[in-house]
Design goal:
The chain is α/β, with parallel strands linked by helices and about 250 residues long. Helix content is about 45%, strand content about 15%. The chain has one domain (about 10-249): Rossmann fold, CATH 3.40.50. The chain has helices at about 20-30, 45-55, 70-85, 110-135, 150, 155-175, 215-225, 245-249; strands at about 10-15, 35-40, 60-65, 90-95, 140-145, 180-190, 240. α7 (about 215-225) links the parallel β6 (about 180-190) and β7.
Length: about 250
């Protein structure tokens, strides 16, 4: 592990952590000393491999397959985490589905699919983890939003609405959970170079001031900070990590 161990003794759940941004977040939190639960819905092999990678360098991790929209499955994940590690201090709501479709052609089922994973999933996971987060002396929730929640985008009404909802949830929970010493923040990535199964989304054509795409590690570093001791006076905020794309639009 690296020299920084600011999260030593802490336990984190990262949803949608088998690949890309979620994977980078799990690795960075583990690097900071946290025990990490790697959640995945279908990518069990990749989640198990990531847990093995963390353990191979002296970290603590295990993979748990659970659909974040299934309250019972999330409950089992939380129970398994507490049984294995004894506590939960950090929740990163990263699980998401992102599709592009014209609004005129969008069915209610397609709309609900996106909102259920992104927004309902964050609600279900936060609710299930809350007793443990409140019992921690430094509980933290970090929601992973998106640039289009602030700019809008063609063919992404469902994704934009869901990610904008995460911003509202972040602010509401920051108010409600402050008395329990739980911080709640949102990280809003811009265009990030990740492995994709399809073409680059139209929404990623917003130019950054830097002229480059970011890396998953850029998002992970911000999450690590917000989950750590140096960010205890930060709550209810949306941190934009997009190379200045928010300014250039």
């Amino acid at each position: 592990m690296a020299e920084g161990q600011e999260l030593d003794g802490r336990v984190a759940i990262v949803t949608g952590a088998a690949r890309n941004i979620g994977r980078a977040i799990a690795l960075d939190l583990a690097d900071a000393g946290a025990a990490v639960v790697i959640n995945a819905r279908t990518s069990e092999g990749e989640a198990q491999a990531l847990a093995g990678e963390i353990e191979a360098v002296g970290g603590r991790a295990f993979a748990f397959v659970a659909d974040v929209t299934d309250e019972a499955a999330v409950g089992r994940m939380v129970a398994a985490t507490v049984e294995r590690f004894g506590r939960i201090d950090i929740l990163v709501n990263n699980a998401a589905v992102r599709r592009e479709q014209a609004f005129a052609e969008m069915s209610l089922a397609a709309w609900r699919e996106i909102l259920t994973v992104i927004l309902d999933g964050a609600f279900i996971c936060a609710k299930a983890c809350l007793p443990q987060l409140a019992a921690s002396d430094a509980g933290a929730i970090v929601n992973i939003g998106g640039l289009t929640a602030h700019l809008g985008a063609n063919r992404r009404a469902h994704v934009v609405a869901a990610k904008a909802g995460l911003v509202g949830l972040t602010r509401a929970l920051a108010h409600e959970l402050a008395a329990q010493n739980v911080t709640v923040n949102c990280v809003s990535p811009g265009r990030i170079a990740t492995a994709r199964r399809g073409p680059e989304p139209n929404a990623h054509r917003v130019p950054s001031l830097t002229g480059t795409a970011g890396a998953p590690d850029d998002i992970a570093a911000t999450v690590r900070f917000l989950a750590g001791p140096g960010a205890r006076y930060i709550t209810g905020q949306t941190i934009h990590v997009n190379g200045g794309a928010y300014l250039s639009s």
